[in-house]
Amino acid sequence: MSIDRNIYREDVDFSALALQDPEFNKFVKSNGQLDFSNPEAVKQLTKSLLKRDFGLKLELPDDRLCPPVPNRLNYILWIQDLLDTTSDSYTDRYNPDRGVTGLDIGTGASCIYPLLGCIQRPKWRFAVTDIDEKNLEYAKRNIIANGLKNRIRPLKTEPNGPLIPLDAFGLDSIDFTICNPPFYASPSELLASAAAKSRPPHSACTGADIEMVTPGGEIAFVTRMIDESCRLKERVQWYTSMLGKYSSVSSIIEKLKAKGIGNWAVKEFVQGGKTRRWGVAWSWGDMRPRMDVARGIGSLPKHLLPFPSQTSISLPETTLDAAAAGINSILQRLDLKYQYRPQLSTGVGFVKENVWSRAARRSKQKVLASSVSEPRRDFDFQTMDEDSDEEEVRLGFKIEVRQGGGGEVVVGLRWLKGVDAVLWESFCGMLRRGLVGGG
């Protein structure tokens, strides 16, 4: 889970950072606190954290946004989890050999997302855009200062041009977009928000209106992304954006559902118990993220959360080997591909249709009665055989057998691939009945 990799899960210790960085020490009060109403102090905090924790250099103008590092890292970690749990290796783990290309929409002067992404994962590359010449000027400086010119490519775009200009970059496809859109629909809304937070406008926010205000606010901005995704489809595996307002999350999800997009993910980013932001992602593909990655906002109504991609079956009074044998016995009778690896207590399988219904079983019996069946052929579930007809797969699943805390055996089921939630639910029900009884 991304929280395990988040080095800022606890509040930053300003006193410790001050001892490590003399430049930051100048802004720390005698009580060890930082004056967040001082833009220079906030800017130095960002610079010092990037320097200490990632070895990154940063140059920022006084009149552009200064990004909070912990919040931006949270977003990057979630993107990592999305990609790791929807790769064709089906391992749910980071593959250091996988090349990844991301697009940062509106990178800002800091270019912080590409900097963090590249420094953490050597095989990542970025295309970055911005409509503001000054932002791009500083972004280029930061790219060069950190030796990333060969991995981060900037491009100036126009306000009314494509948000996802793959063709302008000469890219056939990419793995993800990342975006922190302007939150506000007008300067007056920005000022009203600052007043509601009981602080002077722009007190610790040095952003220009071009970075913080857009016609229609963040909902209109992300809606443009959704509309473009309807044309680009699977040229991007995951379209993602951050949202600054909780109310925007439900609006965006309803728009996704209205477009027929059934594969989405949501996440709440919390830092220090105060600042909250939200992430939304969607895909036209059929790779399903792990459930903790996809359903990361507990307060969201159930109908706005993606369909659960994991469930479990508890089997008392049995052993791991007996449970695995029972699963194999059930699945071997069905017309599907399945391979179980005892050393991992894990199996992965794929099926082209519902082959466990009574009608499907009767049909298979008729076929077997009139022909000689071919022997079942194993496959490597980390790299599927080229002739395995993966494009015809309607359901991919993973089964993990583990020991429970109360002595029982727990069979964990994970939806890996597919768009048919009814088929996935039916498969889980079939396996449950076969293991527990009643069918």
Question: What is the secondary structure topology, with strand pairs?
Answer:
Blueprint: H1 2-5, H2 14-20, H3 22-25, H4 39-54, H5 69-84, E1 100-105, H6 112-120, E2 124-130, H7 133-145, E3 152-156, H8 166-169, E4 174-179, H9 187-196, H10 209-212, H11 217-232, E5 236-243, H12 246-258, E6 263-271, E7 275-283, H13 291-294, E8 295-296, E9 310-315, H14 320-332, E10 337-341, E11 346-351, H15 358-370, E12 395-403, E13 409-417, H16 421-436
Parallel strand pairs: 1-2, 1-4, 2-3, 4-5, 6-8
Antiparallel strand pairs: 5-7, 6-7, 9-13, 10-11, 11-12, 12-13
The helical percent reads 25-40%
- Broad structural category: alpha/beta
Sum up the overall morphology in one term: globular
Number of helices in the DSSP assignment: 16
Give the overall average pLDDT. 90
**Helix and strand pattern:** HHHHHEHEHEHEHHHEHEEHEEHEEHEEH
Question: How many strand units?
Answer: 13
Strand order of the largest sheet: 3-2-1-4-5-7-6-8
Rg calculated over all Cα atoms = 25 Å
SS strand fraction: 15-25%
Low-confidence stretches: 199-203
Distance between the termini: 36 Å
Sheet having the most strands: 8 strands, mixed
